[in-house]
Amino acid sequence: MKRILQTYSLGIVAIGVIFTFAFMAVFAYGVSPDNSPYANQMHIQLATQPPGTQISVLHKKLASPSEKTGLLQGLQSGFSLEYEEIPVTIAEKDSGIIRYEVIGSTLSKSISANDVIYDKSGNYLHSRVFHLGTDRYGRDLLSRLIVASRVSFVIGFIAVGISLLIGLPLGLLAGFYGGWIDRIVMWLVNVVWSIPGLLLVIALTLALGKGIFQVFIAIGLTMWVEVARIVRGQVKSLRERPYVEVAKMMGFSSGKIIWGQILPGVLHPVIVVSAANFATAILLESGLSFLGYGAQPPLPTWGGMVKDHWPYLLMGKAYLVLWPGLCILLLVLSFMMLGNSMRDFTDPRKKSL
Amino acid sequence: MSELVSIHEVSIGVDSPIVNDLNLTIEPGERLGLVGESGSGKTLSALSLAGLLPGNVRLLKGVISIHIPGNMIQIPGATEKQLLQLRRQSLGFVFQEPMSALNPVMRCGDQLMENLKLGGKRSEKLRQSEALSWLNKVRLPNPERVMRAYPHELSGGQRQRLMIAMALCNKPKLLIADEPTTALDVKVRDVVLDLMDELCRASGTALLLISHDLQMVAQRCQTIAVMQNGICCEYGRAEDLVNNPKHPYTKALWACRPNPEHRLIPLPTVKEIIAGGKMDYEQFSESAWTLKGEALRRHPALLKARDVHFSYGSTQILRGVDFDLYPGESLGILGESGCGKSTLSRIICGLESIQKGTMSYRDGESYLPLEQQDRMWRAQHIQMIFQDAMAALNPNHRVGRILGETRKHFFPGETSADRKAVLMAMMEKMDLPTDGLDRFPHSFSGGQRQRICIARALLAEPRILICDESVAALDVSVQAQILNLLHKIRTEGGVSFIFISHDPKTVHYFCHRVLQMEKGKFIDHG
Known about the structure:
The complex is a heterodimer. Chain A is α+β, with helices and mostly antiparallel strands. Chain A has helices at 2-7, 9-26, 28-31, 71-77, 141-177, 179-194, 197-208, 212-238, 242-249, 254-291, 302-309, 319-346, 348-351; strands at 53-61, 83-94, 97-102, 108-112, 125-130. Chain B contains 21 helices and 22 strands. Chain A binds chain B through residues 241-243, 245-246, 248-252, 260-261, 264-265, 353, and chain B through 54-55, 349-351, 374-379, 383-384, 386, 388, 391-397, 405-406, 409-410, 456, 460.
């Protein structure tokens, strides 16, 4: 056990990181400070505040309050606001009227004390902390980061799912039957492979239109190639194994042989490749979002956040770019390391040591 | 002290010892044989000599001392540097599988020269000429070509010769050969062993020959140590061990070999002999055995092959094979590897299709041409057992699933409770543990795996069972058990055997009639 922990320590750390991100992604609106849909509460006057900024806000009742969002729906797509947030510098309560000055303006305004929402201890001023500061639109950076992790996971799952859905059967058929089926599949593989991945994705998004679902499909359509190639190679060697010959001799149908004898032997390498593909998909999506082909605002993505803020790199506010960058790096690296560890773990030659 | 190596009360193991209190000495130039079944600890004992114990296996107690010129190395206590020098200059290794011991991406000549360099030969030119002369010494044809060849371009026997050259080129004091011929074709085994013998004698190198084959070792070594379960149970001069074995295990190893001149059925197994309980062995005289075979041949033949041809591309594998197989008969096919006997078996069971000639099978009163039947039909009547049982079982499935899907395939109408009962009965018949259905193939021993394969074949209830080298890869004692099992199946009736092997003794022992195959043809009906 100790040996396993030592040998695969990196992989175990990777799993820890992945689970942390996964938790963040699943319960994004539960853990993020700004739990409005897409963490999209903007206060232009609060743009690019430094980390740790604390402000006071008044919660002004809405004229037509929307229905309170249920817990499940809220966790799924964010809690809609029941009030309007007004960041203030000074606020005084004076006989049923609250006078206040909005941040960034010296104009004094007033509001009826009945129109604001009080906290449990009866204060009309609520405090808000921007732990990682705010972005260029005055949105909470931390909340955006947390909500953006969803896109990365979903893109991973969908792209890997599509790549398996196409690559696995094609690889199995090509490897098992050989001949012209093999030639056609490999020709297709080579064609797709010869086109640079990012360009192909851009072409596909142009054809299918901009948007996050187009990106999902486009990335999945480029990644099946690798799955197909690896499955084909594996099947080709498994096909010659005596136990497959026995099944043939027994008169099992080809489908039964592929399903019962060959597929179990292919699964391990496929799992490993899928972990690496997961990482590749995240990276591709970030790249696309950076180029503006990916998710469209207000949906937050790490790549999009880098795109929004890269000029700040040289303006003393590099953290605006570094945080989403770090998230991409950590998640991609973790999936890569997980893939490596799994490859070692499932390698029978290493097992015998 | 005159001895080269002395192993004194050595125990080797992880936590509990695998090898127990081993005492051995090797004199300079002596040939010592270490005999035992797989798992008896003979390889570990040899590796401990070079400080090469794998993983967390350690020397638990005892001392190994090795005298090399001007120095004495003691394990434990030797530094890594001393061990390295020992391995480079004073020990040579020949392993079982030359392909995995050679670097597949390095030219043979370079590998040999690298060894010479490690042995201290500094000049490149000298190394080159030395390497060539060694390739000549091990009688590799066309040494210049071999220098430039990659390992995969050589045959198994040639690779093992190269290994011998690499092991001996630094004039070691001791050559350790671990099952050096097990992976080789029978035909070249003796040649390779002779060569090793001769070169060792010429240079005065001591030889530690490790094998499971007592007879082979007895022919080649002066002293023999027999190991059983990590304990050296008999250690002495080879003649004494052959003529007058003392330990029951040694006696058993001699007795359980199939011997056609002294045909005991069933074969005594090592376990029985050690337990001392004599079973009812039926001894068949040659004439009685022949009569029995003739009686079987009075019925109409079950399988008739006429003028069977087969070729791969331009290579002719089978050139006109004729034979009849009678119901209940065991037909032996004897031949060296490459003679086409495996191809013939693959044609019979339908893995290859017949190219010219006919093969007809008697079903009821009429003969049906085999090639017109589908695989399923053929498999119901003809089953084959392969040589490598591990490879013939899907490592990803439990035994219960492997056997169950076979039974379900042939008897789809059976209820699952009935099927389960059939499997349990089969496991019992095959002498396999009843919890075995829930285990994976790798958790069984080699003999048990072969039993699982036999069980799988029998679940189809075939009338012909082809055994293609089915006992060749097994230890002698396990071989005896499997042969007894096959015999039991035979006496229960209904199954004819085609028994294919390179080993004349096994074939003649088991079969009523033996056909000798050479270059794709039967040469002699006996």
